[in-house]
Here is the input.
Amino acid sequence: MTALSSFEILSQSLIPTADPTIPYVVQAYFVQVSFPKGESADPITFSLSFEETTNFTQGLGQAGVMAQYIDENGQVVEYSSTFFTSGSQPGFFGQQISPGQTKIYSVTVAPPTASNALTAQSGTGWRGVASLIPSTSGLLVVTPTERQIYFTGDLKEIKDSVVYSVATVSGGTLI
Here is the structure.
């Protein structure tokens, strides 16, 4: 198994309080997987798995996870219904990519409904280690990122957003 990076997804108030002036943040974990042309003519099969290091039971828990990927044609493919049932660990299993293609995988937690958004400790969070296991190593370029969107405490308006790269375990992006 090739450990890729740590991950954290969350949907919660920045400070556990019912104060609507405190911003609410939704943080997602993304992994872009590219297979450069010229490396090989054959597709590569891979799995992107997630090993949690937290007790993922607070807030919405597993029921709140939104898992999807953007395929090589730019189409969004929902994966939430099989994300936790595809294998012994949650993840995107049996994925295939051909030379010249890029796919983007994402995992996030749905924001709460407006009725429970201001309830203290209503947030949901999940942390752990993501691993990418390719059928052939050394050919894929893989870049993990975290993306955050900050809302007003009442979830009525987006206040800001941030995207940043996550360090890989190997220190590089060639997997």
About this structure: The first strand starts at residue 3 and ends at 13.
